[in-house]
């Protein structure tokens, strides 16, 4: 049986590094995982006034998460934090209070940046937000990918050889993390 994993690429940019990394992970995933890559595109702004009759896009996103066996976040860093669209998606999915769609789902966090710090502040932001609304967060290996600007070709294929074993090790560790919590 393959565990279904919602892999959220936290950027709206069509050529985002987060989306390319998420797609590369989907190709590298072991047979025990099926990564479905999504973005926050199309998720309307969270407004608590709408909780009584949530918009269809909220319900669809929540249902997709509820049907999954785990969640993998791949996020860029914007101004030392996660992008606002990713925070909005988390807010939508974690409501209504006490009924988070992330509840009990094993979680992985990968941050990335074309710069030298690898989006570490964005990963730390997620580590602060997710406890209490999500399942167990994989602690090791931590993944802060730096210098990803030259990692992909024009078609979005991973071409940076030094990055392949790093991503492979991470997705294999995540597969074990998911299996441990569903075994």
TrEMBL record:
Which GO molecular function terms does the record list? Answer: FMN binding; oxidoreductase activity
Residues in NADPH-dependent FMN reductase-like domain copies: 4-145
A cellular component term, taken from the record's GO annotations: cytosol
- SUPFAM superfamilies from the entry? Flavoproteins (SSF52218)
Q: Which Pfam families does the UniProt entry name for this protein? A: FMN_red
**Gene3D superfamilies to which the protein is assigned, alphabetical:** 3.40.50.360
Q: What is this protein called?
A: NAD(P)H-dependent oxidoreductase
- Name its species: Bradyrhizobium hipponense
Provide the organism lineage as a comma list.
Answer: Bacteria, Pseudomonadati, Pseudomonadota, Alphaproteobacteria, Hyphomicrobiales
């Amino acid at each position: 049986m393959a565990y279904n994993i919602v892999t959220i690429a936290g950027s709206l940019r069509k050529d985002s590094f987060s989306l390319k990394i998420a797609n590369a992970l989907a190709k590298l995933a072991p047979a025990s995982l099926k990564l479905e890559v999504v973005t926050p595109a199309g998720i309307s702004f969270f407004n608590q006034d709408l909780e009584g009759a949530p918009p269809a896009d909220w319900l669809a996103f929540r249902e997709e998460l509820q049907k999954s066996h785990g969640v993998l976040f791949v996020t860029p860093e914007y101004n030392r934090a996660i992008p606002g669209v990713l925070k909005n998606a988390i807010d939508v999915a974690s409501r209504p209070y006490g009924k988070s769609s992330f509840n009990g789902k094993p979680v992985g966090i990968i941050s990335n940046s074309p710069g030298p710090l690898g989006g570490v502040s964005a990963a730390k932001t997620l580590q602060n937000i997710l406890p209490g609304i999500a399942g167990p967060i994989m602690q090791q290996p931590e993944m802060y990918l730096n210098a990803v600007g030259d990692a992909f070709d024009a078609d979005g294929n991973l071409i940076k050889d030094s990055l392949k074993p790093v991503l492979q090790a991470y997705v294999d560790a995540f597969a074990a993390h998911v299996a441990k919590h569903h075994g």
